From TrEMBL, chain A:
Domain of life: Bacteria
InterPro entries, sorted: Beta-grasp_dom_sf, MOCS2A, Mopterin_synth/thiamin_S_b, ThiS/MoaD-like
Entries under Pfam families matching the protein: ThiS (PF02597)
Protein family: Belongs to the MoaD family.
Keywords: Nucleotide-binding
Protein name, entry field: Molybdopterin synthase sulfur carrier subunit
UniProtKB/TrEMBL annotation, chain B:
Keyword presence, Lyase: no
Name of the molecule in the record: Molybdopterin synthase catalytic subunit
Quaternary structure and partners: Heterotetramer of 2 MoaD subunits and 2 MoaE subunits. Also stable as homodimer. The enzyme changes between these two forms during catalysis.
EC code: 2.8.1.12
Pathway: Cofactor biosynthesis; molybdopterin biosynthesis
Gene3D superfamilies reported for this sequence: Molybdopterin biosynthesis MoaE subunit (3.90.1170.40)
Source species of the chain: Castellaniella daejeonensis
Family: Belongs to the MoaE family.
Zinc found in the keyword field: no
Keyword field: Molybdenum cofactor biosynthesis
Reaction(s) catalysed by this chain's protein: 2 [molybdopterin-synthase sulfur-carrier protein]-C-terminal-Gly-aminoethanethioate + cyclic pyranopterin phosphate + H2O = molybdopterin + 2 [molybdopterin-synthase sulfur-carrier protein]-C-terminal Gly-Gly + 2 H(+)
InterPro entries (alphabetical): MoaE_sf, Mopterin_biosynth_MoaE
Annotated SUPFAM superfamilies: Molybdopterin synthase subunit MoaE (SSF54690)
């Protein structure tokens, strides 16, 4: 569970396969721009490819790269969705 | 009503449910049924696996249905989407809309399935007959189709 100094991060589908985990808790003690956070994730795991391709949800809502991630948030990372 | 489930669904049961819920008020009922198809006809498909983001999926679909009810004069919606391992030809998604008049029901139904395809967090992985598996990529045409609903 995320606390005041962490975030819950969820990975789905191909992103989960590349990360090797489906869920992890990451330290975060101050708000960060979603795009910057995603760039750092992509740098940590080159198999993810360019971070511009990746999609993000914050607290179960689609979020743009300009959105802010705050301590305690649930953040999900995934490729463009393919339901229906 | 929104349901995400692994089990097969019965179209007649769902249309019957929608019909009963809007009985007396609805003059039209439109539904869309999506089925599992072969995403790589050259390689031979075996099955499709659907992963989803529980919680966000239901919220997104609810938001799409709410939007449809604000935009068109419709009475009720039923959306059922399956997840897990699905064989070719199986039903995968049902979108049903009840309205007083057919035009509103047709448009709302098409909007909901278009928007669901680009907004609801589901991902398809296809397994081929030879055992290879890959994640299906979002079609540019799907994104364009959803975007068209934003320009009246």
């Amino acid at each position: 569970m995320a606390t005041g100094t962490t975030i819950d991060v969820l990975y789905f589908a191909q992103v989960a396969e590349h990360m090797g985990v489906r869920r992890e808790t990451q330290p975060l003690d101050a708000p960060v721009r979603a795009g910057d956070w995603l760039d750092a994730l992509a740098a940590r795991c080159p198999a993810l490819g360019p971070s511009a391709r990746l999609k993000l949800a914050i607290n179960q809502e689609h979020a743009a790269r300009t959105a802010m991630i705050r301590p305690g948030d649930e953040v999900a990372v995934f490729e463009p969705v393919t339901g229906g | 009503m929104i349901r995400i489930q692994t089990e097969r669904f019965d179209v007649a049961e769902l249309t019957g449910l929608l019909q009963a819920r809007a009985a007396g008020r609805a003059g039209a009922l439109v539904h869309f049924l999506g089925m599992v198809r072969d995403y790589s006809p050259d390689a031979g498909s075996r099955s499709l696996f659907l992963e989803h983001y529980p919680g966000m999926c239901e919220r997104e679909i609810q938001a799409l249905c709410d939007h449809a009810r604000q935009r068109w004069d419709i009475l009720d919606t039923v959306v059922v989407h399956r997840v897990g391992e699905l064989p070719l030809g199986d039903p995968i998604v049902f979108v049903g809309v009840a309205a007083a008049h057919r035009g509103q029901a047709f448009r709302a139904c098409e909007y909901i399935i278009d928007a669901l395809k680009t907004r609801a967090p589901f991902w398809k992985r296809e397994t081929l007959a030879d055992g290879r598996a890959f994640w299906v990529e979002q079609q540019a045409a799907d994104a364009e189709k959803t975007a068209q609903w934003d320009t009246p």
